[in-house]
């Protein structure tokens, strides 16, 4: 898999530092609260695990699976709810943990869903933010890294289901997907 990567953007050490930084900030911001952490599957599973290990606050974890890429390189423009969360969010502080905010469609869909179910508050913690990809308004409250408009894989992010297990984030060589 390493041979398919044009260049590494964030090393394992960079990622560890970002998770520690975010965990400390979240611990401070959620002191005295008991948030529901909502991990967006499948891409955010590694990031969620590593950030939550650094998060020293009583919290519950749940998962939601939504899809807009359908295995491709670009969003299809529609968001499908593949697997709903199991916890009731009514009156809860919810922290969405996402792998990447690109077009903003997925995040907007999830935030609207949570507020329609009467969440008390909704904040977003994303591993990667790609503002150049936005087509709808979406803003993360906590960001690991801001990335350029390139196709990135690794540490949970995939191309056709592969590369999620890379311990770093890299730019996928164009010849792999063209």
UniProtKB/TrEMBL annotation:
Co-factor(s): Mg(2+)
Primary localisation category: cytoplasm
Subcellular location: Cytoplasm
EC number assigned by the record: 2.4.2.8
Organism domain of life: Bacteria
SUPFAM superfamilies: PRTase-like
Catalysed conversion reaction: IMP + diphosphate = hypoxanthine + 5-phospho-alpha-D-ribose 1-diphosphate; GMP + diphosphate = guanine + 5-phospho-alpha-D-ribose 1-diphosphate
Enzyme class: transferase
Domain Phosphoribosyltransferase: 14-160
Keywords for the protein's UniProt record, in alphabetical order: Cytoplasm, Glycosyltransferase, Magnesium, Metal-binding, Nucleotide-binding, Purine salvage, Transferase
Gene Ontology CC terms: cytosol
MF annotations from Gene Ontology: guanine phosphoribosyltransferase activity; hypoxanthine phosphoribosyltransferase activity; magnesium ion binding; nucleotide binding
Protein family: Belongs to the purine/pyrimidine phosphoribosyltransferase family.
Protein name: Hypoxanthine phosphoribosyltransferase
Organism: Pediococcus pentosaceus CGMCC 7049
Lineage: Bacteria, Bacillati, Bacillota, Bacilli, Lactobacillales
